[in-house]
Structure formats: structure tokens, C-alpha cells
Amino acid sequence: MTGCFVDAFFVRAGSTGARIGSETRLSDATIGAAQPGWAWSFWTGAGYGVLFWHALSILGPGGSEAGPDVDLSFDDFSVPAWTGSEYGVVWYREDPDDRGLRLTRIGPDGGEIGTIDLAAGVRVNQSYSVAWTGSEYAVAWEMSAEDDPCVHVSLVGPGDAAPRRAVPVAGCLSHLTSRSIVW
Fold first, then answer.
1. Do residues 132 and 183 lie in contact, with contact meaning Cβ atoms separated by under 8 Å?
2. What was the pLDDT predicted at 180?
């Protein structure tokens, strides 16, 4: 099997778990058999943003689509954070001529604000994480064993053209299978 079909639906639920309104079909995707179907969602204050596979759906407060899906066309697994005014999506590009970990900033309407390199020219393991600290993005990531198997943290402000700092965490933690940062 070369891939499988995955449907993503958005459903609002109340505090008792009861469904509120109807479900919204976000999108479908054909993904590799070994790849999981995953989704991230955020309340933006005016509606919802849902990242499913490589598409960002902008939904109104009732859960209905407020515009067309934004095709992000990232090469690999991506993880988002919501700042209160924009999305920050961290993703990895595997192309040997343009390899690296990147942060793309996306406005609440789905328009791309800009992309910066967090780790250019290196191989990065697929488990990376991003959080919003209240003033900057904090990204935890690990280079592959051939390059530097330590967990690093990059800090990026909303107007930065490059990370302010990309520091290795004291003591290599390469035996971990998942890196996660929570603020």
C-alpha cells in the first residue's frame, strides 16, 4: 500500500462532551502508510485555526469554514503555535540542496508573513516542538546523530529575521524519543 486516505473533521463539544452544532469536514489527504494523520487546533479569539497535515483551515466561531484552506506545502511534519495574533509553524525541509528546520509565520487570515531558517544545512530529527512564551517563539529540536545529537532551543521574536539564540541544552539528551517544549 503506497498511501491511505484520511479525512479530518472539526467538531465543537461542550463541557459535558455533548456535540455543539454540526461537524465540518476540513479536508482529506493521501498520506504514506507509515505516516499518522494528525491535527492541531487553536482558538484565536475570533474563530479556530486547524492545521491538518499540510493545510491550515480557518474556521469561524461556530466552526464553519471562514475561507479556503491554506496549502502550506511543507516537506515534512509540521507543528504550530498560536501567539494571539499569528501562527508560527515549524517544519523541516529534507532537500539536500536546501535542507533545514524553518519557522513560517502565518497571519490569522492564513496569509504567509515570512519564513526564517532555524537550522540551515543540517539534518534534524522529526520530533521538534514550538511554544509561544508571550514575547517570542521557543523551538526545541535535535540534529541527527551524524551532525550533533543534542537537543537545542532556538528563540525567535515576532519581527526577527533570524533566531536570537540557538543553544544546546546542557547534556545531550539524544536517548529521548520526543522533544517537547511547554511554556
1. yes
2. 58
